[in-house]
User: Fold Magnesium transporter from Paractinoplanes toevensis.
Amino acid sequence: MTMGTRVYLARLAGLGVFDPNGDRVGRVRDAVVRLRTTNRPPQVVGLVAEMALRRRIFLPIGRVTSMDSEAVVLSTGTLNLRRFEKRPNELLVVEELLDRRVTVMPETGDGHGSPGNVVDIGMDLTRNNEWLVTRVAVREHTGRLARRGHVYQAEYERIRNLFGPTDTQGTSNLLALLEPMRPADMANALQDLPDARRNEVAAALSDRKLADVLEELPEHDQVEILSRLDRERAADVLERMDPDDAADLLAELPNAEQTMLLDLMEPEEAAPVRQLMSYKPGTAGAVMTSEPVIMTPDATVAEALARIREPDLSPVVAAQVFVARAPSATPTGKYLGMVHFQRLLREPPASILGGIVDNDLEPLRPAISLGEITKRMATYDLVAMPVVDNTHRLLGAVTVDDVLDHSLPRDWRDRDTANAEPEDGVHL
Assistant:
């Protein structure tokens, strides 16, 4: 797939964008097509690229010098960083055309067409240096699972209903593009979709994936998506979220809704969420995670290293092991101290944790304020601190990402807030 040949636009999604010096400046997220008032095929006018801080900008197609399966290369390093806004006569390929239900007419033009769903859009470069939509890759509609139908290509002129109402879209091909993304990137992509489309795609995700994505979305989007799920599914998703994130989300709902969802959750999953919701907002108890890595003092360094290698643990949670007497689930037995992973790497594998714990730092109490937590973590260069009750039982841990999440403005994840306008022209 190079310049001068046919390019399939959905295949560009996710590719890196590079300037002439080979420096990466962003990643392709979509392609923009402009509709014509005549019967001419739509013109592809540019790409939408995502830059740092989740900013999406428009890249005119004329500034693209090459497109292949590895990267998109630009002819200049000077870009307009104004946030992309779609014009009335424009459509986005991935967001609005992918998965659309269309009718493919016979090559002879006679008879009835065959139903199918759009898999990709192909464009060709004309003699006038215009990129026009010329081909559509379609998966035939068989009435069975959407991904089992045969995929074939058809000329644009044979396609009907490509620009019909949005309720003719499915989700399977868009999901295939989104699923390899990290949860934060997928959440960012979902924010660009129309509300109805976003809710459909979110509902089609697995419980685990949807839980991860919800944790990365602004609160108003979390509430909107959760409210569109049936109550049993919503409870299942909440069970798969980190308890502190689930508690924050439930706190945005009416009391009656909170109670119903907590009652639908498994008791062992709901218990830590209920406990977190009982603390005053802005305190250690309200922002902590109730599931840090906890081990007993007779565990070995080798066992601790194996535990923090588990792929489901976030880096900040896996950075240290908290040592407490049994039981190991919060609230634990007596808290003894913590061991940072760097200390674990320097100790013999057979050493026991009880002999190497660091217990010099005073643990946090649940009622301590977020401001005081921030000061202590900054003073001692910590990424996490334990939270204990009056009997010195470990209740959880406040991590640096918890502090950041609750210190930033409530709408910091919102795309509109994050994308403050810079100067129009910036040399990268």
Summary: The chain has a mean pLDDT of 87. The CA atoms of residues 55 and 419 lie 6 Å apart. The two ends are 26 Å apart (CA to CA). Residues 1-170 form one domain.
